[in-house]
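Hey, I'm writing a tutorial for new members on how sequence and structure tokens pair up, and I'd like a real worked example in the thread rather than a made-up one. If someone can provide the structure for the chain below, I'll link this post from the tutorial.
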Amino acid sequence: MDSALNILAEKLGIATSFLDGSQERKEHIVEDKMIKFFAEKMGYKAETEEEIQNSIAAFDKRRWQQSLEKIYVVEQGNVGFDLVIPAEQESENFALHLSSGKNQVPEPVSFDVINDEEYQLIGKTKYVRLKFIVTSALEVGYYDLDLQVANKHYKSVLAVCPQKCWQNEALNKKTWGYALQLYSLRSERNWGVGDFTDLGNFAQLAAKSGADIIGLNPLNVLSHDYPENASPYQSISRVYLNPIYIDVEAVPEFKAEDMADIKNDIDEFRQSELIQYEHIYPLKVRMLKKCYERFKQNTASERYKEFEKYVQAEGSELERLAVFQSLYHKYTQLNWGGWRAWPEEYRNPNSLAVKEYAKENVDEINFFKFMQFEASRQFELACKVVKDSGMKIGLYRDLAVGVGQDSAEVWSEPELFFKEAGAGAPPDAFFPAGQRWALGAFIPNALKETGYRAFIKILRANMHNSGALRMDHVMSLMRLFVLPEKMEGGTYIYYNFKDMLNIVALESVLNQCSVVGESIGNVPDGFLEALEAKNIYALSVLWSERYNDGWGDFKMPDAYPPRAFSSVGTHDMPPLKMWWFGYDIELSYQLGIIENEESKNAAYKGRENDRWRLLKVLDASGVWPQDRLRKGDYIYGEGYPEGIEEATNAYMAKTTCPVFLAELENILHVEKRQNLPGTDRDKHPNWRRRIPVDLEKLPEDPAYIRNVKAISDIRK
């Protein structure tokens, strides 16, 4: 690699080599063309040696070309910033004023100025870089900064962050709850997919059983026109909610007679093993439109006034989502290829054509806003039920690592995302070529130049009404694997880890929401220690809590990490019964993920050894139910061990982790998985599995009763 290109890559945070996620941790050297590609996307030309040298010079000069940066992310007790001004002004008098959301009146603060004699000649002007140390005590929060030098004002934002994320007192002792895929809830009243009313009802049931937390899948809005694209990790906006979770019968404008023509359809949806997104969502939309027509007839009502307040408070963010959905609905019927295939004048959200479209289609755009208004209202009601139930932690929401590239987020602010590239994962044992998640990836320097605004609003939206937040693929705070669309492979792009981590801590404190980092995958050295120092909890999963780098014996309960949220598995892993019988191995073989009989037989042999390891740790932990003690060795063909799900849940309840999240799939003996990574719905019905027992019947279900008792007896 050219040494100058290597220097540019280091300055821009483009990895020139990386270790993959395989067991051997193979090193990959990144090709020059890939580095040049990402440098170009970040605004630095790198095709020739001259361009590379010019880009290095431009990078080094950039701080000298603006007086203040857009934002300064600092820690409480160590508040400072720097200023670049003409050297002739270094002896001027300075006045510093800060204002915050609590007090918009600018107030003077005391400070010290440090001159380290840093000078730079730009053109014919000599500049100096001064450091300012704020000596006044400041509470955590965001401050508008106004620095006056002579008769000129310089402005920026000061994000004063806490040393650590917020700590819920309930995490000082052992608690438990459920990891729930809301869409999967089956009930006698829903329309074939779990909804916000189900969430409230489940919360009441869970609280009665002693649970203090409910972990949820991402609830964000998905594609309006392709509801069968059901992955909750491929949203079109991580700020807003998925209208499919609206309980239509709970909409104030819904009337009983509306059920007449749709009752048979709903009965069919309720009986279906899989969620019929392609039918359920359009039906809900059709009925919501009927409600909307009634709603807008009474503009003097209190409810309509609440709608207007909601729309005004959400501002341009909601406007852009609704306009995007309306445009998408129109053009998806005319062409293929998402918003990038729209007529050029509509690809820019700020164009005159888009503004004219918004004026001409107010009613349809307002309908999309109405759906968000009602989804927000019902979610707030469910959150109130959770709070009133007495749960000590409450909702534990899930923030996806990225957003779909064909999304409102990317369309609204395309300058923040890499063009012609998307997030994914490096090669590992299961995916030798790596994974392409088709998720939009933030450009680090563009994100900072906008004051991290997009990142902050996403955190804030998902921490709202949450006692805890799971950050999917939390390593993205430091680095994200990004793959060009037209090249093989990819490389890591590094972010300002300190800034990102501090902003997470600040929003955590402001929203009183604990933070959990999902760090399964290729974890950089020292990363987990940095999270722990910031009071970010880890995730601990039974299948990975093993010796010998996850390939040996299962750990005893007292060897689990003391600062982690634990569970048996995740939505990407087979439930216990499926794992026990090796049905996941056969499925992978049938789909070609396991390539041949030899590999399949080796997988079965490994699973047999792992089953022995699980039995061994359950025996040693003394967790088998007294009326269902282990009766044999359970070699293949001897059936499913009676009581093993109780024993496994009790084993996890005994761990030192402060939170254990039980899964209904394991409790109710589900044999099929929610999601099989690396497959599309034509190969596996991802995100479509429904819980086999109605919510109303759970309290009487023997397996549910026994498992709740096994867990609560230990965690009470």
